[in-house]
Amino acid sequence: MTIGFTLNGEARAITCPPETPLVTLLRDNMAMTATKEACSIGRCGACLVLIDGKTANACLTMAFQLEGATVITTEGLDADPLAATIRKALAAENAFQCGYCAPGFVMALVALLKENPSPSEDDIRKGLEGNICRCTGYHSIIRGALSAARMVQETLK
Predict the structure, then answer these.
(1) pLDDT value at position 3?
(2) 152 with 113: CB under 8 angstroms?
């Protein structure tokens, strides 16, 4: 099956079995290795991408579901000022140790702050549900997310 979709702003067409997970396409066929494969059952958030502006687990999204979709991976966020703000705030708080989960957390925060640029701490915690980090106690991630939200709010003034 040949599937046409937009990946990080570029029209792409790929031929593969329809049941191929997006995470496999990204990592093995398109060299988009920031999307991580971890649990493979949609519970850890390491493979989060944006599909048509909404977060989606790339391990649970099959190729046949991509026809005509717009997919953004972590690599596609490199020119996004919001993503740069989030990354800067997370780094300032030393939010991650190994970094394996970091792309998924950034994707979740980008989606959250685009939808709600003034989230409460509770909103942030809900927005990050489904993202697992095995290295931290989450406190530094929450602090970084709150800092990013403050930075976004300042730019809106």
Answers:
(1) 97
(2) yes
**Six-digit token string for 126:** 């809900």
Q: How many CB atoms lie within 10 A of CB 70?
A: 15
What residues in the chain have per-residue pLDDT under 70? none
- DSSP-derived secondary structure for 76-144: GGTT-HHHHHHHHHHHHTT--SS-SSHHHHHHHHHHHHHH-SS--HHHHHHHTTT---SSS-SHHHHHH
* Domain extent for 92: 80-156
The side-by-side arrangement of strands in the sheet containing 54-57 is: 10-15, 2-7, 70-72, 48-51, 54-57
Phi/psi of residue 123, nearest 5 degrees: -60, -40
* Owner of token pair 């929450």: 142
Could you tell me if 15 and 46 lie in one domain?
Answer: yes
Q: What's 20's domain CATH number?
A: 3.10.20.30
Residue indicated by tokens 């994707």: 107
The full DSSP string for 93-107 is TT--SS-SSHHHHHH
Of 9, 69, 58, which is closest to residue 36 (Cα–Cα)? 58
Residue 156: predicted pLDDT: 78
Cα distance between residue 126 and residue 36, in whole Å: 21
